[in-house]
Amino acid sequence: MPTATLETKPATKPEVAREPRLLAPHPLGFMRRLSTEMDRVFEEFGIRPLFSMWPRDLGYETTWSPSLEVIEKEGELLVRADLPGLTRENVKVSVTEGILTIEGERKREEKETREGYFRSECEYGRFLRTVPLPEGAMGDRTRAVFRNGVLELMIPVPPRPEKKAHTVEVK
């Protein structure tokens, strides 16, 4: 009687995502991520997908997404984006219909040549981050400062009316 063995891999630290992530908010993002994850699972069992549902040359891929910090203080919305290795020429900021959009592209090439040795590393990645602005935000008065790989955006926002609570008598 034939027998089958299942080869298991020892537990290891979680891998950094090997597949590029889809830029949000593409409407098919969830389906793309699910398909990519299924392809990865099949590859781990030695089954190579015959075709991928999602071509990789659509321009929706990225290998990184910058971290954002959004704080409201003193009548301004402060948005900080960590953009290491970028210059202000690589970044585009726009405000349209109450949505702040930060997009850009990172290109880094590193080459090293020694006797009998050559190493070349390239890192490319486009990104797009969006932040919905609070009602009344004055996007046309946005100020931007880029220094040391950090983009800071200051957007004036109107003061929010103070909400007063009142006690309701329960009978």
Average pLDDT across residues?
Answer: 76
How large is the share of residues in beta strands?
Answer: 35-45%
- Give, in order, the helices and strands: EHEEEEEEEE
- Rough shape? flat
Structural class: mainly beta
CA gyration radius, whole angstroms: 24 Å
Helix content: under 10%
CATH architecture of the largest domain: Sandwich
Q: What is the CA–CA distance across the termini?
A: 78 Å
Number of helical stretches of at least 4 residues = 1
Number of DSSP E strands: 9
Low-confidence stretches: 1-24, 54-62
CATH C-level category of the largest domain: Mainly Beta
Number of domains: 2
CATH topology of the largest domain: Immunoglobulin-like
Largest sheet: 4 strands, antiparallel
Describe the structure.
The protein is mainly beta. The protein folds into two domains: 45 residues, no CATH class; 94 residues, Immunoglobulin-like, CATH 2.60.40. A hairpin with a 2-residue loop joins β6 and β7. It is flat and about 85 Å long. The termini are far apart.
Please name the defining characteristics of this protein.
171 residues, mainly beta, Immunoglobulin-like, four-stranded antiparallel beta sheet, three-stranded antiparallel beta sheet, 39% strand, flat, disordered N terminus
Question: What is the structure about, briefly put?
Answer:
This protein is mostly beta strands and 171 residues long. 9% of the residues lie in helices and 39% in strands. Mean pLDDT is 76; it is low at 1-24 and 54-62.
